[in-house]
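seq as requested:
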Amino acid sequence: MSDSFPRAERLLSFLAVGLLALTPARAPAQPTGPIRFDASHLPPRSFPEATPKRPIPQWLRANLRIGHLPPGLGRMPEEFAKAGYNVIVLNALRNWEIVGPSTQLYDSQEVRRADKYLRDFVALAHGAGAKAILYIGPVQVPYFNPEFVKAHPNWLRINPNGKPDAKPNFANIRSGYVDWLLQQLAYVVREYKVDGFWFDGFAPGHLHTYDDATREAFRKFSGGMDIPGTLEKRGPMRFDIVRDPVARRYVAWHEQYFVDLADRMRGAIRAENPDAVIVANHSGNRTWYFPDAYMGEYPLRYSAAIDVSSVELYWDVPGDALYHPFVYAFMQAVTHDRGATVWIQPSEHGISGVSSPVEIQLRGLEGPPWGVYPEFVESTGREEYLKLHQTNVLAREKWLIDSEPVPYVGILVSEQTRALYGKAALPLYVSHILGAFRSLLEVHWPVRLLSEIDLEDADLQGVRVLVLPNAACLSNRSVEVIRRFVRAGGGLVASHESSLFSEDYQRRKDFALGDLFRARHVGLIPVTQRTEGLQLSLEPGSPIVDDPFIRSRQSTSWRNPSGAPPDRGPLAVIAAASEVEALDGGKVEATFLSSDPKRAGKAFPAVVTSNYGKGRVVYLAAGIDKAMFFYPDGAFRQMLSNACRWVAHDVPPPLEVQGPLILLTTFRRQPKENRAIVHLLNPGSSWGLHSIYQKLAPLPEELRKEFGYPDNPELRGTWPIREEVIPLHDIRVTCRLPDAKKATLQPGNQSLPLRKMKDGVEVIVPKVEMHSMVVFE
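struct tokens:
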């Protein structure tokens, strides 16, 4: 009896998928290519111009077997070299900085040892046909070298109290230290023939300085303003960018200098070796995960000033079925496929425990479908793991090199909304993104994340549908790009308070995109607990909400205790909503009732559809994307996918998969080979793609004060590991790209028979163990 409901639920889900699959495909109303629109004469930027592009060395796209080692030569790097890793990263702290221009500061015997250490490592790596990368702290030389501090006391970062740290830590990047740093990096590349550097600790939050020269430079830049004070917080300095416009201006000034310095360092090493690269910590996972770090660790432009961005995902977030693919998609977004890597620790829980073979293999296979390649970090005596990982990469490398994502749906991840409106806290903003992202992953369509950089550059990466999950803060330039995209035929799905605020968190009188939404903002209807949920009513005949699967989710069982249940009932939406009035041209497809006594009995628009130019728009006043994260219901997933399909003018995705919700699908192509690759990853979590989200608190103090969230102690979920993979069967993969003549299942080169469809071809994958690729050629 206890299992009957889940079985019935699964049956309805598969029945709905089957009904959709049997529906005859309608002829596309529009061309299936990218949406092209005029990008001239746009409003001013709110983000700085992009750093001029430098050529990316080709070896970065081909050398995907990466080993990352702690300090020390001998057995460990030798094992990586013998196993065939083609990039080896070695810790060179207290080695790289004591040779060359500063040799006279150090003991001569130690300098000779460091010189030998660097030469022996490069000889080992190059002798094995691998690239040699040095792991360094470019601004942490004072921390490891008291001799350096004694010689250059004026090169230290200064605190707001006018003094350096009691134990010198970070250098002052606005002092003479920068000239030394550029010379030192160039010397090491020239003298030791290294292929690049892995930067750790080079984060703007650590590098604020209140020395006299820097304060005067900011006064000159800002017209007489001083560097603002910081909020009380352990760790990196934090500024009140939400309330203080001077703080916002200062942080933008500081971060731009930081980005420019990264590019100067890259230029210095490229002058010695055009193929030398910078790999750097770029922990997008922390930016979106820690509620008390709403300023983020790195500005969006940073990834273009280095060559490879790296995340320490499994150190910070060892197990989360939804958040891991989100971080990979985020890194794909900010790097534009220039290059990204992820540390793969063999530890179970961050940096402790011993992982199972299944867990370590899955960690190594989760990133490549998004263009994020593992840096395998192994400890002595466990070479079976590094060899197992190497085998998995080698078997797939042919279909990973020079690949790029296939476009269809783009979800905006708004840095301005995250930092100012949402303060990085889960309830206000991040939950909307994760709910929308989860929904479209589970539909198994091509989906990618976009940033405001993409909007302001008028480069929507070829997507046909743009999704704005509560993108509250949007600049006038971003708004105009969205407007032109939709007018030219693009589709838009937006929720809640999208475009209600400017990029600097100034509330507008109404939605800036109200002419597209065909809705006027009246007020906010907060929902902070389950008992305050909204009751959603669906309009018959709506292409968005009148759907067999959605109707099956309506609550009717207790609506008529003395007789048969009614044909229709409400859906519970446990998420905040905007109170809006529909305008002329806006069709209300669903309404909701609020539990607020002041609003009793009044039905508010929940879903509004409209046309704008050649495009279509769905505005979701009720936060069904957020509800899909906190209180998920398959009906919300179906609404979001129906909305995307409708605004796409029923032009279906170029590649599509029908399979279990747990299946992670990613869609890439290799243009030179005229090849499309569908990645099928079976992560083996019985939670599906629900996010555990370990770090819900502590919440920022200002969030507790303004919105009344309780002052809870820090909440942490479990840290799960995976010990088995349950095979998935009969996965249906549809390809609507032209010229698909054959399909194979890789690795293994198993031929898959093509079945002709009205608008393409399809194949059936009989079985997926852990990871497979369907390759169309």
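The longest strand covers residues 604-612.
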